[in-house]
Design a protein that fits this description.
2 domains, Dihydrodipicolinate Reductase, domain 2, alpha/beta, Rossmann fold, six-stranded parallel sheet, 492 residues, 32% helix
């Protein structure tokens, strides 16, 4: 297969057909292990935000060489190139990831683009024989995350999810301690994402896309529409066609720890969401206030999102100190057990365990290896089972977030009385969470009669097929209509 022919296939093929056309000419061989002293050559895709952190962390690791950067925003790309070359790196730059993937001397890519690109770019990298570090959430919907898992397995790739808590020793120790039964049976796990989120503003018509951006490529798998918000970058998180709200942005970290505590190796069997975008009217359409309940064989995982501060007076400040806290944490996880409870703070330690009288039993303060170091170690060893955040874990935790999004999307406006009536048979932890959410909205002077909450649709899921039971509308949201040539391929 000539390099010119390979280039034509990578550049011109639809995403869904790229694998078939490429592998009809060659197969992806099993990559042999390499020594710790062997150089691993890496590139980063998406550099405006988190990807800059990827590049900085990877380039510091022993015998790892950052060789290339890729971004659809040429201004960002050239600025980052100049920054890293000032540090002594020699870098090639790309605006199209498919050109980057043609490099035979490239071992791995780290992906930190908007959520709607994560699975497809991860699959492209696997097809091209590259190992992958992909930011959280690893997908924009349930179905495409499963395709990324299958692609990683099919092409014998090392694929790490960007859920750093998996590499933190304190979190590892605390989860193991809980699952060993030291506090008895786990009764419920509660995740919180209380993080200040200001309004993104409201425009009267289409906004101008920066001239440095290839907007068609930026849009990729999503519908190509005029930009209907002030900022292209970052605020895509709060638009459902490209982001997943804070349940899939910050919340995925806590959702992952909560699912880890439960030891769940499959998706939950049911979901219900209550929430909305409240306190301001802007161009976002994802909830800034939400409670999601996931049913893991009768044990609830309850997740809360709050983007407003603790009360109306705090809206003059909007910093982390102005946020509510649940059992001592604003961004964290609380595991409720028969004989006590454990509080996980943020994405690391310290972690504290208490008995039922709130007396501290012990704390977990261990550090941990870099999540990127763990990835590179496995790139060298080729041992998928030594990945701390293997792609299957990222998929399951991301899909939990997506289930909450689907329930909310299919819901409708409801009064407080209707919401309480609908929750009458649910777990008391869920009802208590919703009541606290209502008090939080009242403290922010949000009139839920004038701007009602959305009571999501109660959905049942078959974990074996990762599809909803008896609900065609919900199953239409398991995946999406992809814009060619950016269709996510199907793997079986």
């Amino acid at each position: 297969m000539t390099e010119l022919r390979r280039r034509d296939l990578l550049k011109g093929a639809a995403a869904g057909g790229l694998a078939a056309q490429l592998t009809s000419c060659q197969t992806t061989p099993v990559t042999p292990p390499r020594a710790a002293t062997d150089e691993v050559r890496v590139a980063v895709v998406g550099l405006n935000g988190r990807g800059n952190g990827h590049a900085n962390e990877l380039r510091r690791l022993p015998n790892v060489k950052l060789v290339a950067l890729c971004d659809v925003d040429e201004e960002v790309l050239e600025r980052r190139k100049a920054e890293y070359e000032a540090k002594g790196d020699s870098l090639e730059t790309y605006t199209d990831m498919r050109d980057l993937l043609m490099r035979e001397d490239l071992d791995a890519v780290a992906i930190a683009t908007p959520n709607h690109w994560h699975s497809l770019q991860g699959i492209w990298a696997c097809q091209a024989g590259k190992d992958v570090y992909v930011e959280k959430p690893v997908s924009h919907n349930i179905w495409e995350g499963r395709q990324l898992v299958r692609a990683a397995r099919k092409y014998n790739r090392i694929c790490q999810s960007g859920t750093q808590s998996r590499s933190h020793a304190a979190t590892q120790e605390a989860v193991s301690w809980i699952r060993s039964g030291n506090l008895g049976k786990v009764l419920a796990v509660h995740g919180t994402c209380y993080k200040p989120r200001r309004s993104i503003g409201k425009v009267d018509g289409p906004s101008g896309v920066p001239s440095s951006v290839d907007y068609e490529m930026w849009t990729g798998p999503a519908p190509l529409k005029p930009l209907m918000r002030k900022r292209l970058h970052y605020d895509w998180h709060w638009v459902s066609e490209t982001g997943n709200g804070d349940v899939g942005n910050q919340g995925i970290h806590q959702m992952d720890v909560a699912r880890w505590v439960l030891g769940a190796d499959k998706l939950p069997s049911g979901v219900l969401s209550v929430g909305g975008r409240l306190g301001y009217d802007d161009d976002g359409d994802t909830p800034n206030t939400q409670v999601v309940m996931l049913d893991f064989d009768g044990v609830p995982l309850i997740f809360e999102v709050r983007g407003l501060p603790k009360d109306k007076a705090s809206q003059a400040n909007w910093n982390g100190g102005s946020m509510d806290r649940y059992m001592g944490t604003s961004i964290g996880v609380v595991a409720h057990c028969e004989d006590g409870w454990v509080r996980f703070n943020g994405t690391g330690g310290p972690i504290h365990a208490y008995d039922n009288d709130d007396k501290e039993l012990r704390s977990f303060t261990g550090g941990g290896v870099s999540h990127f170091q763990n990835f590179i170690d496995c790139v060298r060893s080729r041992k998928v089972d030594e990945l701390n955040g293997d792609i299957i874990e990222g998929h399951l935790s991301s899909a939990c977030c997506h289930m909450g999004v689907v329930s909310h999307t299919l819901g409708g406006e409801a009064s407080v009385e209707e919401i309480r009536e609908a929750m009458a048979e649910d777990h008391p932890h869920f009802a208590e969470s919703v009541e606290r959410m209502l008090a939080h909205l009242d403290a922010n002077e949000v009139d839920v009669k004038a701007t009602p909450l959305t009571l999501g649709r109660r959905l049942e899921l078959d974990p074996a097929t990762e599809t909803f039971v008896g609900d065609e509308e919900a199953n239409l949201l398991v995946d999406r209509e992809y814009r060619r040539p950016y269709k996510v391929p199907t793997y079986v």
